[in-house]
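Now for one record:
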Amino acid sequence: MSEISVPTLFDVAGKVVVVTGGSRGIGLGIAEGFVKAGARVYICSRKAEDCEKAAAELSAHGECHAVAADLGTVEGCRAFAAHVAEREPRVDVLVNNAGNIWVETLEEYPESGWDKVLGLNLKGVFFLVQALQPLLLAAASPEDPARVITIGSIDAFHVPDHETYAYSASKAGVHHLSKHLARQLAPSHITVNVIAPGRYRSQLLENAIELEGADEMLAPIPLQRFADASDLAGTAIFLASRAGSFLTGAVIPVDGGHASTL
């Protein structure tokens, strides 16, 4: 029988973790979880003031650093990676959370909406992995792989109710891209997995609840509640810990069973 050390099974203390889009919403919740678990966390967003404010609040619980970055361009991804490389010899965990959404009718959907959403949600994920690959390789080992965790969506599994064409297409692309990267990077001891959230209590969801009502929004969710920060942070910490070290190429719905009804 193998010896299992339960206290260290979910331990991420001392890991260097990058969370993109970490100043609010899902990214902030995941960053908070890693900070409180003892990791050294770097968060980024396009708005320097928001990022610095979030990092200052998280620093009350551990170590968190803010970096302003536009990850919707290749140059932005490379500049951000260079900034991290100046401060760290390795990155143990990359959480690709930064993303955009654009809602518009089929008749009026603009090219700029496609470019903005695909540029950050899909292209940005690929080129940030590319730019941070040397730091991920420096952290990787057979026993403790480096981890790439990308935030997808259950909208990649079904046709959403709202006209978010570029968003749902980008998330479907992210799911497949992550599986492709998982296969490519496995020999280098880097795992790549996706967390696909369901209905998370973001400002966007709050607006929808106000329009449609909570009961209507909860109706398709078997567990009858919305996802919260601890649900997403817990899954990310699992994937980054020893407990998740043999998992790669997986898409994990964190949605209260919503995907099972689609």
Remarks:
- The longest strand covers residues 190-197.
- The chain has a mean pLDDT of 93.
- The first helix runs from residue 6 to 9.
